[in-house]
What we know:
By secondary structure, the chain is α/β, with parallel strands linked by helices. Helices cover 31% and strands 19% of the residues. The chain has 11 helices and 16 strands. The chain has helices spanning 12-23, 45-55, 70-73, 82-91, 125-134, 154-161, 200-207, 244-256, 267-270, 287-300, 320-330; strands at 6-9, 28-30, 37-41, 64-66, 96-101, 116-120, 138-139, 167-170, 181-184, 191-194, 212-213, 237-241, 261-265, 277-280, 308-312, 333-336. It has an 11-stranded mixed beta sheet with strand order 1-8-2-3-7-4-6-5-9-10-11, with helices on both faces. A hairpin with a 6-residue loop joins strand 9 (181-184) and strand 10. Helix 1 (12-23) packs across helix 5 (125-134). It is globular and about 60 Å long. The protein starts with 5 loop residues before the first strand and ends in a 5-residue tail after the last strand. The chain binds threonylcarbamoyladenylate and magnesium ion. Magnesium ion binds next to loops.
Amino acid sequence: MSKQTQFLIWDEQAVEQLAKQIQAGEVVAFPTETVYGLGADASNPEAVAKIFEAKGRPSDNPLIVHVADKDQIKHYVKEIPKYANLLIEAFMPGPLTIILPSNGKIANNVTAGLDSVGIRIPDHPAAQELIRTANLPIAAPSANLSGKPSPTSAIHVFQDLNGKIAAILDGGTTGVGLESTVVDCTGEVPRIMRPGGITKDDIELVLGYPIEQSMIENDKPKSPGMKYNHYQPDVPLILIDGNAEFFQSKIDQYQAEGKAVGLLVSEELASHLSADQIQVCGTITNLSTIAGQLYQTLRTFKKTEVDLILAEVFPEEGIGQAIMNRLKKAAIHIEKAENDR
Ligand code: TXA
Ligand code: MG
């Protein structure tokens, strides 16, 4: 079913309109500090079903519930462990999602039938105004078609979902650029299920002890979303793990096979390379710049212009863990220099 999607610039009136649409069981896109979300009333299963339909999202992949205040969290969960309270105090609002035992108040299709619920307080005034005005918990995945890179601007949402949702609230480009960190808080100790805007170091500093980052790629992911293809650009992407010389040899090799090669690299590496298309996505001296521009850069590569993307391997420290988590999922494979590092 195709319908008109309204495109609204963020102001008070626009927020009021979106809030009414959410209350009426419609699906709308809005900015958060991480990526754009696709929201619906989390207490209305028919509304939530429309999110899965618009995105083409598998129904066994649960959605995060967005609330505006810390006080709201207790309404949807059985209990909050002490360590989770520390995380709430330190990082909410912010790019952190905590998974807690559900008390069943949230629609069953939001949690995909699990007995836990993911909750987050977005740190973006537009998102907060929307949740407060609608006066409802809002279930929201990233506002992209399932499998595509997440949207960091309203235009990306429009490209993916025009005609499939009621409205898009344009609040400019999102800041963090990668999704929230998902932390499982249902056990004795917390476990990172998806690296994101809040780093492992940030969390360990607050808790005072080391925590596990579960390698969700393994057989039975506790976070069901982890088993699906993600962040796929239109063109196949290969990760190149090596120095500039190795990188250039790979470019030359693929070009010799008749392929037009696009690069997704830092400005530092870009200055040493030549290829058919070079997309610079930030500086390695500040990995937040890479995080902020990664998805947008992935979206710039077009099948009509390049046959494949060769992407840099960034240091897996701080936000670099989240960057590499997404890039590894976007990649078809990784090519590593033999005697480099
Ligand atoms: O930054 C973000 O988190 C963005 C913005 C819009 O808030 N949202 C987002 O949602 O990235 P989504 O649906 O694209 O990713 C949510 C992840 C999925 O991997 C999902 O499987 C996991 O969180 N998740 C949600 N609820 C869960 C639960 N109860 N148990 C385990 N994993 C859960
Ligand atoms: Mg997503």
